[in-house]
């Protein structure tokens, strides 16, 4: 763990990020990451293949923060198809301050490790909709 990081990002998480980033499956998918507070490390919570963004509302615990790496099959108005990948930081507003600080402190480190520039923050799970994602990705 480096002096400016609050948590470790172990090789298994780095490998999962790399594998997810270079996957060939054209379906929507999510890689959920969380902080293991006891071990002070980032860990993979779940890899979900073929998942719509709205389905994450039922999968992610409402009262716990998560880092979500999401890849989305986007159909453009001119007929092109792209597969943007984004980093979504979910942090409910009603969690302990210590947990908010821990997750916020690791956000940039994890974002850099994942190599993603499309970064969005969500406070309520109900915000995770396809319309919300399309609006964010079209900017």
Number of helices in the DSSP assignment: 4
The poorly predicted ranges are: none
Number of strands: 8
CATH class membership? Alpha Beta
Total individual domains: 1
Rounded mean pLDDT score: 92
- The CATH superfamily is identified as Severin
How much of the sequence lies in strands comes to 25-35%
Separation, N- and C-terminal Cα atoms: 36 Å
Largest sheet at a glance?
A: 6 strands, mixed
CATH fold label: Severin
Backbone structural class: alpha/beta
Rg computed from alpha carbons, rounded to a whole number of angstroms: 15 Å
Order of helices and strands: EHEEHEEEEHEH
Strand order of the largest sheet: 1-3-2-4-7-8
Shape: globular
Helix fraction by DSSP (H/I, runs of at least 4): 25-40%
Any idea what the CATH architecture is?
Answer: 3-Layer(aba) Sandwich
Structure description:
The protein is an alpha/beta fold and 139 residues long. It has one domain (8-138): Severin. 29% of the residues lie in helices and 28% in strands. The strands form 2 sheets. Strands 1-3-2-4-7-8 form a 6-stranded mixed beta sheet. A two-stranded antiparallel sheet has the order 5-6. Helix 3 (97-114) links the parallel strand 7 and strand 8 (119-122). The protein is globular and about 50 Å long. The N and C termini lie far apart (36 Å).
């Amino acid at each position: 763990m480096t002096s400016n990081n609050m948590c470790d990002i172990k090789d298994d998480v780095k490998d999962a990020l790399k594998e997810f980033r270079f996957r060939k499956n054209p379906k929507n998918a999510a890689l959920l990451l969380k902080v293991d507070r006891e071990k002070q490390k980032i860990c993979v919570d779940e890899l979900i293949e073929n998942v719509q963004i709205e389905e994450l509302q039922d999968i992610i615990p409402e009262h716990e923060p998560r880092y979500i790496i999401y890849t989305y099959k986007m159909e453009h108005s001119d007929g092109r198809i792209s597969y943007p990948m984004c980093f979504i930081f979910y942090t409910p507003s009603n969690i302990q301050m210590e947990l908010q600080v821990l997750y916020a402190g690791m956000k940039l480190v994890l974002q850099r490790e994942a190599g993603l520039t499309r970064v969005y923050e969500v406070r309520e799970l109900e915000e995770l909709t396809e319309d919300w994602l399309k609006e964010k990705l079209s900017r």
